[in-house]
Amino acid sequence: MSNSLIYQYPPLQAGILQKRYKRFFADIQLDSGETITAHCPNTGPMTGLYLPGNPVQVSSHDNPKRKLKYTWEMIQVNDTQPTWVGVNTGLPNRVIRHLLETHQLPELAHRYDRVQREVKYGQDQKSRVDFLLTSDNPEHPPIYVEVKSATLVEGRMALFPDTVTTRGQKHLKDLMAVQPDAKAVILYFINRGDCPTFAPGDRADATYGQLLRQAYHEGVEVLPYRFEITPNGIKFLGLAEFVVDNG
Asked: What is the average pLDDT across 131-143?
């Protein structure tokens, strides 16, 4: 893959994580010595990522409507092989949108002409798919794409999820339900560059793991994409190997 950045962060400031609390707040001591409270854009447990004392990077924003000026963007983990991991769960969808609109995902590139966001779908029409790809070619059916950010690791294997996710379970059921009239894709944004393989996170949510394997065997396309996170930006590393049975 190209070594060029597919996403460039705004200028970031380095610091040390002090603590995270009330899910959305993180106290961080900047390298300048100032201690700030940053927005934590991650509602999950951040298993393996909540590491007080570790280096972090934050972005700053001058929007007067924001309650917090700073946003926690990434944390460095693994002392023996330091690796930056993205913690901003809102960013993967923006990156994937760019890659879809510029046809840079090889497995999907020639199968659609238009990209729509947040389209209602599912048996009850109460879910919204992250992306709906449609084509002018009648031989190319619509493609429903759900995006998930994966940060949990075991060795050098990325896992998803890191906690029980009934919402994620429902998304897999909805993706299976759109077939055979449409194509379904579950796309995992591996938010770190140190994982060449990917598998279901059965220890965190065995039901999700069962549903993911069922979806895979029923034809849902599983695309675990690797990304290298750095304070400068994000590089696209291509597909990780999907380990269907990691027991």
From this structure: 96
